[in-house]
Design goal:
The protein has four helices and four strands, in the order αββαααββ. By secondary structure, it is of the alpha+beta class.
């Protein structure tokens, strides 16, 4: 799978699992994304896909790298759809 396609799928999954914040942007906690069965089946490297999406300014999250357990409550915010 290519990175562009994985980023598109990530956007769909954030929309499916996330909620709209007061600013109108969809957000989801990293732990929700990481533990979702559908996401686990789609993404071989969820963290890598998130980093690629962040570099393209499609999503934003605090920090550079998200790790399961440690960063479960970090919000991943969808900037572009």
């Amino acid at each position: 799978m290519n990175v562009e396609h994985e980023v598109e799928l990530l956007v769909q999954e954030i929309k499916r699992l996330g909620t709209e914040g007061g600013d109108g942007k969809t957000r989801v906690k990293f732990g929700v994304l990481f533990s979702d069965t559908r996401c686990a089946n789609i993404f071989e490297a969820l963290v890598g896909t998130l980093r690629a999406a962040k570099r393209k300014k499609i999503v934003n999250f605090e920090g550079e790298l998200l790790l399961q357990g440690v960063h479960d409550n970090v919000e991943v915010i969808l900037l572009k759809e």
